[in-house]
Amino acid sequence: MERLQKIIANSGYCSRRKAEELILNGQVSVNGQIVTELGTKVDYTDTIEIEGKMLNKETAKEYYLLNKPRGVISSADDEKGRKTVVDLIATDKRIYPIGRLDYDTTGLILLTNDGTLTNLLTHPSHEVPKGYLAKLNGLIDKEAIDKLKKGPIVEGRKVEVLDFKIKKKDLNKKATYILITIIEGRNHIVKNLFKTLGYDVDKLTRVSYDFLTLGNLKSGEYRTLTIKEVKKLYNK
Questions:
Q1: Active-site residues: which are they?
Q2: φ, ψ for residue 39 (rounded to 5)?
Q3: Are 177 and 134 in contact (CB under 8 A)?
Q4: What CA dihedral angle connects 207, 209, 215 and 216, to 10 degrees?
Q5: What are the structural domains, with CATH classification, of the chain?
Q6: What is the pLDDT of residues 131-160, one digit of tens each?
Q7: Is 115 helix (H, G, I), strand (E, B) or coil?
Q8: What is the mean pLDDT of each run of 10 residues along the chain (236 residues)?
Q9: Quick one: pLDDT at residue 104?
Q10: CA pair distance 59, 139, nearest whole angstrom
């Protein structure tokens, strides 16, 4: 059993927010009965109609890896009319990003219309390592490095740093380029992590997601995932 609006969204028909609107407006029926209560649980075998049309729950699944540019929203739509990651993908399917990257953060983000995989990868019990290249405003010192090794405390919780490597110290610009891999998925976690160490993050790029990397993709470019890659993600 699953919530009705979630099944509708997972099918690719529309976003979950739009599905909730349709339900509240009495435009959704289950097995011939109009449903207007949000949170109603149904089975995938139930007959669901939206606006008089049968819902196709077997929509072909699509999977994309995008190199997100700066200034693009990590969302399926934006109420302010700003460009989203979905706008960059040439497909007629209702896809959405798995997780988020900040407006000014670039790099690897996955998009799909597979709700099952999305739930799998975003559930707290599935610890997906994510790698970031951060440009820090300042030259990182030994004290900060020692804290990274132990795991910094951010907003009262320890952040497990799986790995980090200083790629470059620019003495002229007083900047440090550091590659860091964490499991955390809290909002602005990388920026907040370095802020607790006394450094602002001037630029941030996600360079890896589990075993996936950007490869040769330029900013704004994307590719489809292979069947092998999708199966590997499912086996997390």
A1: 102
A2: 90, -5
A3: yes
A4: -60
A5: 2-54 (3.10.290.10), 63-125+215-234 (3.30.70.580), 130-209 (3.30.70.1560)
A6: 999 999 999 999 999 999 999 999 999 999
A7: helix
A8: 83 83 96 94 88 80 96 89 94 89 96 88 86 97 94 92 96 96 90 96 97 97 96 89
A9: 94
A10: 50
